[in-house]
Amino acid sequence: MSGVETAAQTRFARKVAELRTARSMSLAMLGTATFVSRGWINNVEAGRRWPARSWAAQADVVLQADGALVRAWDAGQREREDSEGVASLLVASARDSNALIATRVHERDLDSLQDVVEQLAIGYLASPARPMLEQGMDVSRELTMRAKVGAVRPRELMDLYLGLGRVSGILSYAALDLGRSDIARTHIETAWHMADMAEDSELKAWVRGTQSLIARFDQKWEAATSFIEDGLRYAGQGTSILRLLSGAAQCAANMGDTVHAIEYLDTAERARETIGLDSLEGLFGFSRAKQWYYGGSSLMWLPERFALERAEKSAEAAIAAWEHEPPEQRSLDDEALAHVYLATARIRLHDLDGAMDAVRPILELPPERQISWISKRVSNLAALLEHEEFNGSQQAADAREELRAYGS
User: Fold this and answer.
1) Nearest to 311 by CA among 347, 273, 268
2) Taking the model in full, what pTM does it have?
3) Using alpha carbons only, what angle is made at residue 143 by residues 138 and 145, rounded to the nearest 5 degrees?
4) What is the rounded distance in angstroms from the CA atom of residue 259 to the CA atom of residue 274?
5) Long-range contacts made by residues 59-68, C-beta under 8 angstroms, separation at least 24?
6) pLDDT tens digits, residue range 168-218?
7) If you write DSSP's letter for every residue of 42-95 in order, what string do you get?
8) For 289-326, how does the pLDDT look when each residue is reduced to its tens digit (9 = 90+)?
9) Which of 43, 83, 313, 315 has the greatest number of CB atoms lying within 10 Å of its CB?
10) Is the sign of the CA dihedral 195, 196, 199, 204 positive or negative?
11) What are the residue ranges spanned by the domains of the chain?
12) pLDDT at residue number 145
């Protein structure tokens, strides 16, 4: 479903719910009659899913709506198309405007471009991936053009490389959040090259951490560990060492190594007491909440009850901390994922009520906030409920159906 949501679309969703209630039909009954799941119907009535016209016509017959439901769908579709057209024009106009700026390389000084990079790094934490990708591309084009035409003074060249490295890192994150690890790898390799040209160890450590993150996304744990080991050579002042150690804990936990997973997390806890400030925060920082988040996302995979209980507490601490974080440190996507990790730990602790309480706010997120990490982890939740230990549990079956309806 598109991220565009209109008044007519909302009216259609309400119409479905009103007609179903008037006919005394449950979600499951309407789903069976129209060949979809109960969760699918729930998403339609909540405005999270825009169905095909064929479904609207079928539901119109089942609900005896005499064409009212089809007319409501047609009105909603017209508004959606109008809204999407305007949005596309706005994006295109912004891109063209930025392209014009980029051709006039002397009009903006390098300091102002570095400010834009900083704003992107901070803004990324609270913004959907797609607009960040578009903005990052615009800034990257302008910085690249400056490098090509030599529109910088010699002493500014290192700053230009640093800016290009950071923008490439932002593009890598956006590509990964949109589910394209192959493209993310291309951008992060560019970031590494730029960090090397800029001779910036802090960015090198961050890049190696991100290369490990991409490898973990692809479940290549040994490669992910190798990137971390190399990244530790560059980690100095700032939070990179915490991010790398926490990533190492994720790798160890996913390879079933409880001892080293706990050891890495404990070492990171001790190291936080002595670290200095990052030169750039936002996407390039590693807040206290993020560190707890990594603890939860690591330990939730381990079989030991003490590890699962620590994972639960870490995820709870991350969620509570993010509620009070300043914008430059509050990552909305990670905050959402922390809810999923909390639910994962609780399922493995057989607390199904607590698990669904934790994850339901995430199931209601708008489409533009449903990044690939969230989709993968919610699918993992549903898979956990298929284990034989939950056989015969109606509560587990209901929870599994609700989770599978997410994004369907």
Assistant:
1) 347
2) 0.69
3) 95
4) 24
5) 59/16, 59/19, 59/30, 59/34, 62/30, 62/33, 62/34, 63/16, 63/19, 63/20, 63/23, 63/25, 63/30, 64/23, 65/15, 65/19, 68/15, 68/19
6) 999 999 888 888 899 999 999 999 999 999 999 999 999 999 999 999 999
7) HHHHTTS----HHHHHHHHHHTT-TTHHHHHHHHHHHHHHHHHHHHHHHHHHHH
8) 999 999 999 999 899 999 999 999 999 999 998 877 76
9) 315
10) positive
11) 1-103, 106-199
12) 75
CATH architecture of 1-103: Orthogonal Bundle (1.10)
- pLDDT greater than 50 at residue 92: no
46 pLDDT band, cuts 50/70/90, is: confident
Closest CA to 130 of 3, 281, 217: 3
Distance CA 250, CA 242 (A): 13
> Alpha carbon 147 to chain centroid distance?
32
Q: What is the pLDDT of residues 348-368, one digit of tens each?
A: 999 999 999 999 988 887 776
